[in-house]
Prior knowledge:
Layout (H helix, E strand, L loop, with lengths): L1 E5 L5 H14 L2 E6 L11 E5 L6 H9 L5 E3 L3 H9 L3 E3 L5 E2 L4 H16 L12 H18 L1
Helix pairs in contact: 1-5, 3-4
Amino acid sequence: xxxxxxxxxxxxxxxxxxxxxxxxxxxxxxxxxxxxxxxxxxxxxxxxxxxxxxxxxxxxxxxxxxxxxxxxxxxxxxxxxxxxxxxxxxxxxxxxxxxxxxxxxxxxxxxxxxxxxxxxxxxxxxxxxxxxxxxxxxxxxxxxxxxx
Length: 148
């Protein structure tokens, strides 16, 4: 199992949870971003910088996924690819994407995008809270406990 983090927009607190866990779990985590990220110097954490193009990080992650990997992303199309490859995908707020819910989430994402483009609504998800951190940590622990 590998852990893949769609790191460009991932909250730092989520990255910190991953950093602390990978040494204890002895699994490799790959933080993929289109800009350089400073990561702890350890054999288990890898920073992958991709070109600055649309969905470059997503494409890299999808191309390198193997079954049972864990993907941490708020990007629903990336989560869809991960689920279809037999991986587990969770967002930074601890919600798991599954075969049962990914189609609905994609539809809602696309609908909200149309509303934003039409200026009917603005913005996205609210700020990242302590409760979000707790929900992510619980989901992360639940999955890593099951697979390891």
